Amino acid sequence: MLCPLPVLRLRKVLLGAPVGARVTLLATDAMAAVDVPHFCAEGGHRLLDRRDLADGVHEFVVERGLSAPLAASGLTPKDI
């Protein structure tokens, strides 16, 4: 997938997943190596692993966190 598709699809999957869920993303766009870590940092998610596989495929393992605004507020999903 070419950017911004990897991050957009990752975002969509994470929005439907519970906090703590792990998602594996495979992307062929070299810019994903920059975009995915940035997305995780800005969105309150954790990038657990990143590997370069064969044929230019990049693998990212992401753990869903609280959304950035919620994390900054100190609230948890149970508070809502």
UniProtKB/TrEMBL annotation:
Residues 1-64 form the UPF0033 domain. It comes from the Bacteria. InterPro entries: TusA-like, TusA-like_sf. Residues 1-32 form the signal peptide. CDD domains: SirA_YedF_YeeD. Pfam families: TusA (PF01206). Keywords: Signal. This is tRNA 2-thiouridine synthesizing protein A.
